[in-house]
Amino acid sequence: MKRKIFLDIETLPPAEEVQDALAHEICLAQAPKKELALTGELDELNVQQFRELALHGEHGRVLAIGMLVEEDSRVVHHGLLGRERATGKFHLDEVQTLKAFWHLVEGFNVNRDLFIGHNIMDFDLPFLIKRSVIHRVKPSITLSFRRYQRQPIFDTMWEWSCWRHRIKLHDLAVALQINSSKQEGIDGSRIYDAFLNDRHSDIALYCMRDVECAREAYYRLEFLEAPALVPYASKVKDAPYPLPLDQDIHPILLPVSVA
Fold it and tell me: What does the alpha-carbon distance between residue 209 and residue 118 come to, in Å, rounded to a whole number?
Protein backbone atom coordinates (compact mmCIF):
# COMPACT_ATOMS: atom_id res chain seq x y z
CA MET A 1 0.00 0.00 0.00
CA LYS A 2 1.60 3.25 -1.18
CA ARG A 3 0.76 6.47 0.63
CA LYS A 4 0.90 9.96 -0.84
CA ILE A 5 0.74 12.71 1.78
CA PHE A 6 0.03 16.14 0.30
CA LEU A 7 0.97 18.80 2.81
CA ASP A 8 0.84 22.53 3.53
CA ILE A 9 1.21 24.42 6.80
CA GLU A 10 0.22 27.87 7.97
CA THR A 11 2.30 29.62 10.60
CA LEU A 12 2.18 32.63 12.90
CA PRO A 13 4.81 34.85 14.52
CA PRO A 14 5.59 34.06 18.18
CA ALA A 15 3.31 35.22 20.97
CA GLU A 16 2.88 38.99 21.04
CA GLU A 17 4.84 39.45 24.27
CA VAL A 18 8.01 38.56 22.34
CA GLN A 19 7.54 41.69 20.26
CA ASP A 20 8.72 43.92 23.11
CA ALA A 21 12.02 42.05 23.38
CA LEU A 22 12.42 42.25 19.60
CA ALA A 23 11.80 45.99 19.68
CA HIS A 24 14.54 46.38 22.29
CA GLU A 25 17.01 44.51 20.06
CA ILE A 26 16.12 46.73 17.11
CA CYS A 27 16.59 49.86 19.24
CA LEU A 28 20.07 48.72 20.20
CA ALA A 29 20.96 47.89 16.60
CA GLN A 30 19.62 51.22 15.34
CA ALA A 31 21.01 53.37 18.19
CA PRO A 32 23.29 55.44 15.90
CA LYS A 33 20.29 56.27 13.71
CA LYS A 34 18.22 58.13 16.25
CA GLU A 35 16.21 59.77 13.53
CA LEU A 36 14.42 56.46 13.00
CA ALA A 37 12.72 56.79 16.37
CA LEU A 38 11.56 60.28 15.42
CA THR A 39 10.07 59.31 12.07
CA GLY A 40 8.31 56.18 13.23
CA GLU A 41 10.41 53.98 10.96
CA LEU A 42 11.63 52.07 14.00
CA ASP A 43 8.11 50.98 14.91
CA GLU A 44 7.49 49.94 11.32
CA LEU A 45 10.72 47.93 11.25
CA ASN A 46 9.80 46.27 14.53
CA VAL A 47 6.42 45.12 13.19
CA GLN A 48 7.94 43.89 9.94
CA GLN A 49 10.65 41.85 11.63
CA PHE A 50 8.19 40.44 14.14
CA ARG A 51 5.88 39.24 11.35
CA GLU A 52 8.78 37.67 9.45
CA LEU A 53 9.49 35.42 12.43
CA ALA A 54 6.50 33.36 11.27
CA LEU A 55 8.78 31.98 8.55
CA HIS A 56 11.38 30.64 10.99
CA GLY A 57 10.84 27.49 13.02
CA GLU A 58 13.05 28.83 15.79
CA HIS A 59 10.45 31.45 16.69
CA GLY A 60 7.27 31.01 14.65
CA ARG A 61 4.29 28.86 15.59
CA VAL A 62 2.37 26.17 13.72
CA LEU A 63 -1.18 27.38 13.22
CA ALA A 64 -2.56 24.70 10.90
CA ILE A 65 -1.46 21.62 9.01
CA GLY A 66 -3.49 20.96 5.88
CA MET A 67 -3.28 17.39 4.63
CA LEU A 68 -4.64 15.16 1.93
CA VAL A 69 -3.65 11.51 2.25
CA GLU A 70 -4.09 8.96 -0.51
CA GLU A 71 -3.59 5.24 -0.08
CA ASP A 72 -3.32 3.46 -3.43
CA SER A 73 -5.19 6.35 -5.11
CA ARG A 74 -7.96 6.36 -2.50
CA VAL A 75 -8.41 9.53 -0.42
CA VAL A 76 -8.41 8.55 3.27
CA HIS A 77 -7.85 11.94 4.90
CA HIS A 78 -8.72 15.39 3.64
CA GLY A 79 -8.63 18.19 6.18
CA LEU A 80 -6.69 20.19 8.74
CA LEU A 81 -5.04 19.68 12.09
CA GLY A 82 -5.02 22.49 14.61
CA ARG A 83 -8.72 23.37 15.02
CA GLU A 84 -11.20 22.94 17.86
CA ARG A 85 -14.05 20.56 17.20
CA ALA A 86 -16.79 22.69 18.71
CA THR A 87 -15.93 26.13 17.34
CA GLY A 88 -13.87 25.55 14.21
CA LYS A 89 -11.25 27.98 15.50
CA PHE A 90 -7.54 27.29 15.62
CA HIS A 91 -6.53 26.40 19.16
CA LEU A 92 -2.80 27.30 19.04
CA ASP A 93 -1.86 24.18 20.99
CA GLU A 94 1.23 23.27 19.00
CA VAL A 95 1.95 20.17 21.04
CA GLN A 96 -1.49 18.74 20.28
CA THR A 97 -1.21 19.61 16.59
CA LEU A 98 2.29 18.15 16.24
CA LYS A 99 1.34 14.95 18.06
CA ALA A 100 -1.65 14.57 15.78
CA PHE A 101 0.53 15.04 12.72
CA TRP A 102 3.21 12.53 13.70
CA HIS A 103 0.52 10.02 14.65
CA LEU A 104 -1.18 10.44 11.29
CA VAL A 105 2.03 9.79 9.32
CA GLU A 106 3.23 6.97 11.58
CA GLY A 107 4.37 3.98 9.57
CA PHE A 108 5.51 6.15 6.65
CA ASN A 109 7.83 4.07 4.46
CA VAL A 110 10.64 6.23 3.08
CA ASN A 111 11.25 3.76 0.25
CA ARG A 112 7.64 3.65 -0.89
CA ASP A 113 5.56 6.54 0.42
CA LEU A 114 5.74 10.22 -0.52
CA PHE A 115 5.41 13.60 1.12
CA ILE A 116 4.30 16.00 -1.60
CA GLY A 117 3.95 19.76 -1.54
CA HIS A 118 5.31 23.07 -2.73
CA ASN A 119 8.54 24.15 -1.01
CA ILE A 120 8.06 21.48 1.67
CA MET A 121 11.73 20.51 1.38
CA ASP A 122 12.91 23.87 2.69
CA PHE A 123 9.94 25.13 4.68
CA ASP A 124 7.00 22.97 5.77
CA LEU A 125 8.73 19.77 6.85
CA PRO A 126 11.81 21.42 8.45
CA PHE A 127 9.48 23.82 10.27
CA LEU A 128 7.45 20.94 11.71
CA ILE A 129 10.58 19.12 12.79
CA LYS A 130 12.07 22.20 14.48
CA ARG A 131 8.86 22.91 16.37
CA SER A 132 8.68 19.25 17.40
CA VAL A 133 12.20 19.38 18.82
CA ILE A 134 11.43 22.62 20.68
CA HIS A 135 8.27 21.12 22.21
CA ARG A 136 9.88 17.70 22.82
CA VAL A 137 7.44 15.93 20.54
CA LYS A 138 9.39 13.07 19.00
CA PRO A 139 8.69 12.58 15.26
CA SER A 140 7.40 9.13 14.40
CA ILE A 141 9.61 8.95 11.29
CA THR A 142 13.06 10.06 10.19
CA LEU A 143 13.43 11.98 6.94
CA SER A 144 16.47 12.83 4.86
CA PHE A 145 16.68 16.32 3.38
CA ARG A 146 19.36 15.62 0.82
CA ARG A 147 19.06 17.70 -2.31
CA TYR A 148 17.98 16.50 -5.76
CA GLN A 149 15.69 13.79 -4.39
CA ARG A 150 12.11 12.98 -5.26
CA GLN A 151 11.72 10.11 -2.79
CA PRO A 152 10.46 10.28 -0.07
CA ILE A 153 9.97 14.05 -0.51
CA PHE A 154 8.56 15.29 -3.80
CA ASP A 155 8.78 19.09 -3.88
CA THR A 156 6.79 20.55 -6.76
CA MET A 157 8.80 23.79 -6.67
CA TRP A 158 12.15 22.07 -7.22
CA GLU A 159 10.77 19.46 -9.60
CA TRP A 160 9.39 22.18 -11.85
CA SER A 161 12.56 24.30 -11.84
CA CYS A 162 14.96 21.32 -12.07
CA TRP A 163 16.50 22.51 -8.79
CA ARG A 164 17.61 25.80 -10.35
CA HIS A 165 15.35 28.53 -8.94
CA ARG A 166 12.33 29.12 -6.75
CA ILE A 167 8.83 29.67 -8.07
CA LYS A 168 5.65 30.52 -6.20
CA LEU A 169 2.84 27.99 -6.25
CA HIS A 170 0.54 30.56 -7.83
CA ASP A 171 2.98 31.13 -10.70
CA LEU A 172 3.34 27.40 -11.23
CA ALA A 173 -0.44 27.02 -11.26
CA VAL A 174 -0.72 29.76 -13.88
CA ALA A 175 1.92 28.06 -16.02
CA LEU A 176 0.15 24.71 -15.78
CA GLN A 177 -3.28 26.33 -16.20
CA ILE A 178 -4.67 24.80 -13.04
CA ASN A 179 -6.70 26.42 -10.27
CA SER A 180 -4.54 28.59 -8.03
CA SER A 181 -5.08 28.94 -4.30
CA LYS A 182 -4.52 32.70 -4.71
CA GLN A 183 -7.48 33.28 -7.01
CA GLU A 184 -9.82 34.08 -4.15
CA GLY A 185 -9.72 35.02 -0.49
CA ILE A 186 -6.47 35.58 1.38
CA ASP A 187 -2.88 34.64 0.63
CA GLY A 188 0.04 33.51 2.76
CA SER A 189 1.27 37.01 3.55
CA ARG A 190 -2.06 37.85 5.19
CA ILE A 191 -2.48 34.82 7.44
CA TYR A 192 -1.50 36.70 10.59
CA ASP A 193 -3.89 39.56 9.85
CA ALA A 194 -6.66 37.07 9.07
CA PHE A 195 -6.02 35.30 12.36
CA LEU A 196 -6.12 38.56 14.31
CA ASN A 197 -9.43 39.36 12.59
CA ASP A 198 -10.89 35.98 13.58
CA ARG A 199 -11.11 34.74 9.98
CA HIS A 200 -10.44 31.12 10.88
CA SER A 201 -12.60 29.63 8.13
CA ASP A 202 -10.87 31.72 5.47
CA ILE A 203 -7.47 30.50 6.67
CA ALA A 204 -8.65 26.88 6.59
CA LEU A 205 -9.99 27.22 3.05
CA TYR A 206 -6.80 28.92 1.85
CA CYS A 207 -4.59 26.24 3.39
CA MET A 208 -6.57 23.41 1.83
CA ARG A 209 -6.64 25.12 -1.56
CA ASP A 210 -2.83 25.15 -1.39
CA VAL A 211 -2.83 21.43 -0.64
CA GLU A 212 -5.17 20.70 -3.53
CA CYS A 213 -3.23 22.96 -5.90
CA ALA A 214 0.06 21.22 -5.07
CA ARG A 215 -1.66 17.86 -5.57
CA GLU A 216 -2.82 18.83 -9.03
CA ALA A 217 0.64 20.18 -9.88
CA TYR A 218 2.20 16.88 -8.77
CA TYR A 219 0.02 14.80 -11.06
CA ARG A 220 0.73 17.14 -13.96
CA LEU A 221 4.48 16.93 -13.33
CA GLU A 222 4.26 13.13 -13.26
CA PHE A 223 2.06 12.96 -16.40
CA LEU A 224 -0.58 11.10 -14.40
CA GLU A 225 -4.32 11.51 -14.06
CA ALA A 226 -5.28 12.70 -10.59
CA PRO A 227 -7.87 10.52 -8.80
CA ALA A 228 -11.26 12.17 -8.48
CA LEU A 229 -11.50 14.57 -5.55
CA VAL A 230 -14.31 16.60 -4.02
CA PRO A 231 -12.74 20.01 -3.17
CA TYR A 232 -12.45 20.78 0.50
CA ALA A 233 -14.50 23.96 0.06
CA SER A 234 -17.43 21.93 -1.29
CA LYS A 235 -17.24 19.46 1.58
CA VAL A 236 -17.34 22.24 4.15
CA LYS A 237 -20.24 23.93 2.38
CA ASP A 238 -22.31 20.75 2.24
CA ALA A 239 -21.34 19.30 5.61
CA PRO A 240 -23.64 19.52 8.63
CA TYR A 241 -22.51 21.59 11.62
CA PRO A 242 -20.61 20.95 13.81
CA LEU A 243 -17.99 19.58 11.47
CA PRO A 244 -15.64 16.79 12.58
CA LEU A 245 -12.84 19.29 13.09
CA ASP A 246 -9.34 18.71 14.46
CA GLN A 247 -8.76 14.95 14.30
CA ASP A 248 -6.36 15.24 17.26
CA ILE A 249 -4.17 12.24 17.98
CA HIS A 250 -6.56 9.62 16.62
CA PRO A 251 -7.77 10.82 13.21
CA ILE A 252 -10.74 9.10 11.65
CA LEU A 253 -9.43 8.03 8.27
CA LEU A 254 -12.50 8.09 6.05
CA PRO A 255 -12.89 9.28 2.46
CA VAL A 256 -15.24 12.02 3.68
CA SER A 257 -13.03 13.08 6.58
CA VAL A 258 -12.83 16.85 6.86
CA ALA A 259 -11.55 19.27 9.45
Answer: 12
Q: Are 119 and 163 in contact (CB under 8 A)?
A: no
User: Which tens digit of pLDDT belongs to each residue from 5-14?
Assistant: 999 999 999 9
What burial class does residue 89 get, using C-beta atoms within 10 Å of its C-beta: 0-12 exposed, 13-18 middle, 19+ buried?
middle
138/132 Cα distance (integer angstroms): 6
* 3-state SS class at 187: coil
Grouping H, G, I as helix, E, B as strand and the rest as coil, residue 17 is: coil
**This prediction's pTM:** 0.85
Nearest to 157 by CA among 111, 187, 123: 123
Q: Are residues 7 and 67 in contact, defined by beta-carbon separation less than 8 angstroms?
A: yes
Helix segments in the chain, DSSP class H: 18-29, 35-39, 41-52, 94-104, 125-134, 156-161, 169-176, 191-196, 200-221, 232-238
